[in-house]
Design brief:
CATH superfamily of the largest domain: P-loop containing nucleotide triphosphate hydrolases
Structural class: alpha/beta
Radius of gyration: 26 Å
Number of domains: 4
Strand order of the largest sheet: 2-1-3-6-7
CATH topology of the largest domain: Rossmann fold
Oligomer: single chain
Largest sheet: 5 strands, parallel
Strand content: 5-15%
Length: about 450
């Protein structure tokens, strides 16, 4: 039977927590001080330690550090005072599994305990010796940077702390988020990815929180939002820097209170989601520019995972190329010549792994046999390309034609960055969707 250690100096709180956990079929030990907790930890093995932040002879952070240092496989959850955001964030940064705010919600407590008990134990064999279902997209590469990234993902998978993933477009931010989800205690629950830049602003609240029937024109039935869809699992907010300020306020409250209110509803409902966010922008710059709320930044950026760019790991390119070719149609048995590998390693890859996939797909289409050389890759230096465009392509053109070409290039770049989502591209360009559609028609962009 699983055993939980409860540490709190208030007897009635200890009794409430103990009774709740015992009704879940768990054994409990209780301690009123940090000293008593350390003594119990020496005698017994626990699946979870639940501790108050304020103790008569210390605090929850000191106990957290002690458990992390001596009993690394035991997750620690802390109980903080109501509204004490700073303490909760400090505990998560120090390695806490999760936190609860006073007065303790028994529903949130039970959810937290269930998640903690689902944590994979070190060296515990999985069914059939295989990785958990869904962990098929792996982060390949043996470079020191990629090894460090995988180790960080392994650590973050054992926590419920909000994680912000930074990195350039195409470097695998969503894949890292999926791995954290599939390797953690929420792996059997939904993983819901959301592209924040692709949602029209007037639909954001209903898309995130859902709505009641009759809440507005066209709401002919109740609808669940992203939070409800991800309940028990992970909500991945991609391009979170694109959220409008008004939506940032509502998102902050949902994260802090762990409750949401559907549009048109009078009451709130509890939601249990882990938030992982990502952006290719620098969130700190967005905060300084007044485009992103500082309080939301600190809630999302509790722990930052930086995904390295491909040009930082040139030694991994041959391995990635072989795998990409192997899973491409017609790529099996195709070999990259040494000259092609050297050219790929020297290339800057502004589009990272996504661009590498595109380059190899094109090379497969151009190659006549089972060998791909430098010529089939059709690589060009970005500097040389931009210089040629500036010096030759636009030289001597009438002003309007010059402006049209610049405008077309900007629109195509925005479409590429948003995976050809026109709503998101319009937002990125700072124009309306209607204006973008008109410009695309005028410039012949299909």
């Amino acid at each position: 039977m699983s055993k939980v250690l409860i540490v709190d100096d208030e007897a009635d709180i200890r009794e409430l927590l103990s009774m709740t956990l015992q009704r879940m079929g768990l054994e409990t030990d209780c301690a009123a001080t940090e000293f008593e907790a350390v003594q119990l930890l020496q005698k017994c093995s626990y699946e979870l330690c639940l501790t108050d932040m304020r103790l008569p002879d210390g605090d929850g952070l000191k106990l957290l550090e002690h458990v992390t240092a001596h009993y690394a496989t035991t997750p620690v959850a802390v109980i903080t005072a109501h509204g004490s955001t700073e303490n909760a964030v400090a505990a998560l940064k120090a390695g806490a599994f999760d936190y609860l705010a006073k007065p303790v919600s028994l529903e949130q407590l039970r959810s937290l305990v269930r998640s903690a008990l689902k944590l994979p134990r070190p060296n515990a064999p999985r069914k059939g010796g295989e990785p958990p279902a869904g962990v098929l997209p792996v982060l390949l590469g043996d470079s020191p940077l990629m090894q460090q990234t995988r180790q960080m993902i392994d650590r973050l998978a054992r926590s419920q702390a909000p994680v912000h993933i930074s990195g350039e477009s195409g470097c695998g931010k969503e894949m890292a988020a999926r791995l954290m989800h599939m390797m953690g205690p929420r792996r059997d629950a939904p993983f819901v990815p959301v592209n924040c830049g692709a949602i029209p602003e007037n639909l954001m609240e209903s898309e995130f929180f859902g709505y009641r029937k009759g809440a507005f024109t066209g709401a002919d039935q109740d609808k669940e939002g992203f939070f409800q869809a991800a309940n028990g699992g992970t909500l991945f907010l991609d391009e979170v820097a694109d959220l409008p300020i008004q939506m940032q306020v509502k998102l902050l409250r949902a994260i802090q209170e762990k409750k949401v209110r559907k549009v048109g509803a009078t009451g709130e409902e509890n939601v249990d989601v882990r938030i992982i966010s990502a952006t290719h922008h620098h969130l700190g710059d967005a905060v300084r520019d007044g485009k992103f709320r500082q309080d939301l930044y600190y809630r999302l950026n509790v722990i930052e995972l930086r995904m390295p760019s491909l040009r930082e790991m040139p030694e991994d390119i041959p391995v990635l190329a072989r795998v990409i070719l192997g899973r491409s149609a017609g790529g099996e048995g195709v070999t990259l010549l040494p000259e092609a590998i050297a050219a790929l390693r020297a290339y800057s890859f502004p589009g990272n792994v996504r661009e590498l996939e595109n380059i190899l797909e094109r090379a497969l289409a151009l190659s006549a046999g089972a060998l791909i050389g430098r010529e089939e890759l059709q690589l060009a230096s970005p500097v040389a390309r931009s210089e040629a465009q500036a010096a030759g392509d636009l030289a001597g053109l009438p002003l309007q034609e010059h402006l049209d070409r610049v405008e077309k290039a900007a629109i195509l770049e925005a479409l590429e960055r948003t995976r050809f989502n026109r709503t998101a591209a319009a937002k990125l360009l700072g124009i309306t969707f209607r204006a973008l559609r008109y410009r695309m028609e005028r410039l012949g962009i299909n």
